[in-house]
Amino acid sequence: MAVQIDPTSYRNLDIKAHDDGVWVVTLNRPTKRNALDIDTIEELVTFFSAAPRAGVRAVVLAGAGDHFCAGLDLIEHHDEDRSPADFMHVCLRWHEAFNKMEYGGVPVIAALQGAVVGGGLELASSAHVRVMDQSAYFALPEGQRGLFTGGGATIRVTDLVGKARMIDMMLTGRVYQGQEAVDLGLAQYIVEGSSMDKAMELARKAAQNLPLSNFAICSAVSHMQNMSAMDAAYAEAVVAGVVNTQPDARARLAAFADKSGARVRPNAE
Ligand code: 1HE
């Protein structure tokens, strides 16, 4: 059942495992601003298909260089001169990759800098947590390029910012950055320094949770959003039945009961 991930078999992704179960996956085509060509998408499918069964406790997803990701590889798209059916299949591979991320059960923390645009925003919005630095900015330039979103923005970006803002971003190319981007929900954290450092800190924290708890958090919440409230409540009860009785949780519950377990306190001033 356990699968192995061989970092040396990836060309467009740089993959590094850390001792604490945190894996750093970096889009590694900085000279192309990490634009998503089909090979990169296939490597994302491969990695995120394996991660849940390979002991990966959390993933930090990053982009090499000054920009997280410039979206669809427009040069490849231009040169391939794809048919409608061809591009539909390209988009289905994007969905395969991004659904594996969102529904795979392994926490994915995105570390963002520079452009997070078009398909780059679709990729980032498939992560569970987004950390931006002061240089990061978000946009959907598809409208200006004669294109439309094809990697899930109509679903995930709309979930983050709402329908009206999503349509405005696509119609006018509006760019969001800084604290406003956090206030709208495009990222959960903004940092003065490196988004990578903060993302690693959050990933290490998440990696300390029991894997089955993280599996539920990083798959069940998304699945339940797709259900009616009645069905979601039922599914939540079933998931909680499994997770909340896991044998590995007993030591944590015992620690609370004997008062050695950490208490929940407000943040220090
Ligand atoms: C690219 C791409 C790309 C850069 N595809 N090659 N996305 C966009 O519309 C964003 C397009 N990119 C940009 O607006 C800018 O490149 C950036 C703001 C991201 C960066 O600017 P800058 O000045 O640092 O770089 P540059 O000079 O524009 O580009 C550097 C190189 O990266 C250059 O290649 P070179 O071989 O001439 O050196 C660029 O061609 C290359 N490059 N971005 C291919 N996107 C499933 S549907 C999803 C639909 C979409 O995602 S549409 C949105 C596409």
TrEMBL record:
One of its GO terms (biological process) is fatty acid beta-oxidation. Belongs to the enoyl-CoA hydratase/isomerase family. GO terms for molecular function: lyase activity. It comes from Sulfitobacter pontiacus. The gene is dmdD. Signal peptide: none annotated. This is Methylthioacryloyl-CoA hydratase. The lineage of its organism: Bacteria, Pseudomonadati, Pseudomonadota, Alphaproteobacteria, Rhodobacterales. InterPro entries: ClpP/crotonase-like_dom_sf (IPR029045), Enoyl-CoA_hyd/isom_CS (IPR018376), Enoyl-CoA_hydra/iso (IPR001753), Enoyl-CoA_hydra_C (IPR014748). Keywords: Lyase. CDD domains: crotonase-like. It is an enzyme of class 4 (lyase). Its EC number is 4.2.1.155. PROSITE patterns: ENOYL_COA_HYDRATASE.
